[in-house]
Amino acid sequence: MSESLIVSASGIRGVVGEGLTPEVAARYGAAFAAHIRSVGGDRGYIAIGRDSRTSGALLLDAVCAGIRAVGLDVRDLGIVATPTGLLAVEDADDAVGGLLVTASHNPAEWNGLKLVAAEGRFLTPEAGLDVQRRFGETIEYVSWDRVGGRSTLEGANEAHIERILALPIIDVDRIAARGFRVALDCVRGAGGLIVPELLDRLGCEVIGLDLEADGRFPRAPEPVPENLGGLCDLVTSSEAHVGFAVDPDVDRLALVDERGRAVGEDWTLTLCAELVATHQPGPVVTNLSSSRSIEDAANRVGVPFHLAPVGEARVVGRMLELEATIGGEGNGGVIYPALHLTRDAPLAAALILQLLAERGAALGALVDERPSYRIVKRKIPRGGLAVSDVIQRIIESAPQDAKQDHQDGIRLDWPDGSWVHVRPSGTEPILRIVAEAQHEIGACARADWVEAHVRQ
User: Fold this and answer.
1) Active-site hit among 104, 290, 291, 372
2) Residue spans per domain, the chain
3) Residue range 353-364: mean pLDDT, rounded
4) pLDDT band at residue 2, thresholds of 50, 70 and 90?
C-alpha cells in the first residue's frame, strides 16, 4: 500500500495517474480473470461496468484489455450503479464474475476496481487475497488466437427496477397513493440513471439536484450530513416530504427529513431494519462501526441482533451464516437478501417510502420518537503509524468496565451504552475512529481518549 494506491482483499483503489494507472488497472483485471479461470470460470463472460467518474471510461478499457488478454470475454454494462452491476451478474446464467470501476464515496481524483463473484456478491476475503497474490506475480497471457471478445449488455437498469418493484414487501399502489414529493441528490454519479425512474414508477414527484451522470461532483461525494446542505435547502424550498442522497456508485442512501434536517446515514438501515423485521422476523446484522439505533430497531421488533467486521463481504458472510432477513452498514448501506446480497440505495429508497406509507407519519416524527445518539467519526493519516501497536496499546489501556470486541481492530463498549471503534481503513490510507454516545460531548470524550493513545 502507498498513499495513492490501496490494494486489499476487497479490491483496489487509488489516485488516478499516480498510484492507479491504466497499466495497474489492466494488470489487476488480468489477475482477476486468472483467478476466475482457476476456479473453473472459463466458460462464460465477465460483466464490466463503471460509475460516472471522468476517469472511468479510460480505466474500464484498461481492465477490459487485461481480462481479454487472459482469454475471457467481457460484456460492458456501461455506467451503472454498483448494486445494478451485481444483480446483472447474479441474474445471468453465463456470467462467471463481474468487475466494476468505481471509488464509491472517495473524492473525484480517486477511482478503483471492485470484484464480483459469479453469485453476484463481492469476492470473499479469501478469494480477494488470491487475486491480490496473482496481481503481484507473473500472469500467464493467452496467444493471439485465444484473446477474449467484448460486447455490450443492455437492460441492467430496467431489470434492477423491475426486481425492486416485484418484491412482496413493496406495495407500489400504497406508496403511489401517498403522492410523495422527493428531493433527490445524485451528486452527478450513476444514481441519476436509475433512481429518478424508480421513484417515478413508485408514483413520486421528483425534484432533482445534480442528476447528470457526468462525474463532475459539485461537492464532496460522501453523503454525510455536512455535505448535504444543498439537498436540505431543496427539501425546504420545494416542500418535499423527504430528501434522498446517494453516493456516486449508488450503494449508500442518506436521508433528509421534511424539515430539511440531515438525520444521519445510520437511520437508513435503522428504519429499513424495523420495516423488514416487522414483515419478516429474523436476525439483523450490521458492522462494528454502526449506530446503536440499529440494535434498538431489532429490539423493538424482538429479533436477534449481531455485529460483524466492517466490509460488505464480511457483513454478507455473517448474514448468510445467521440467515439474516436484513443487514448492512451504518453508512447508509442496506442489504436485503430477498433481492440480493449487496448494499443497494435504490432498494433502500423503496423500503423507506414503504415505511412512510405504512406508518402514515413524516420521517422527522419517526426519527424523533425513537432513541437517538450522537456519533463522531475521525480520520488519522496512517503515514508511518504502526497500526497493530496502536491497537494493542488501546487494548492494554482499556478501562475495566469496557467490553472488548477484537473482530476488526478494537471496539470498546461501556455500560452506559457508549462505544468506540478503532480500525485501519480498507479504502483510504487512514486510521478510523468512530465513537457514539447519547450526547456529543460523551462521544467526543471516547474519541479523544483513543486519539490521545494514537498520538503517543
Assistant:
1) 104
2) 5-154, 160-368, 374-455
3) 97
4) low
Q: For 160-368, which CATH superfamily applies?
A: Alpha-D-Glucose-1,6-Bisphosphate, subunit A, domain 3 (3.40.120.10)
Residues 51, 249: contact at Cβ < 8 Å?
yes
| C-alpha dihedral, 174 to 179 to 181 to 182, nearest 10° | 20
Angle at 101 between CA 153 and CA 86, to 5 degrees: 55
Q: What is the tens place of the pLDDT at every residue in 321-341?
A: 999 999 999 999 999 999 999
Instruction: State pTM to two decimals.
Output: 0.94
Judge whether 104 counts as a catalytic residue.
yes
SS (H, E, C) the chain: CECCEEEECCEEEEEECCCECHHHHHHHHHHHHHHHHHCCCCCCEEEEEECCCCCHHHHHHHHHHHHHHCCCEEEEEEECCHHHHHHHHHHCCCEEEEEEECCCCCCCCEEEEEEEECCCCECCHHHHHHHHHHHCCCCCCCCHHHCCCEEECCCHHHHHHHHHHCCCCCCHHHHHHHCCEEEEECCCCHHHHCHHHHHHHCCCEEEEECCCCCCCCCCCCCCCHHHCHHHHHHHHHHCCCEEEEECCCCCCEEEECCCCCECCCHHHHHHHHHHHHHHCCCCEEEECCCCHHHHHHHHHHCCCEEEECCCHHHHHHHHHHHCCCEEEECCCEEEECCCECCCCHHHHHHHHHHHHHHHCCCHHHHHHCCCCCEEEEEEEECCCCCHHHHHHHHHHHCCCCCEEECCCCEEEECCCCCEEEEEECCCCCEEEEEEEECCHHHHHHHHHHHHHHHHC
CATH architecture observed for domain 374-455: 2-Layer Sandwich (3.30)
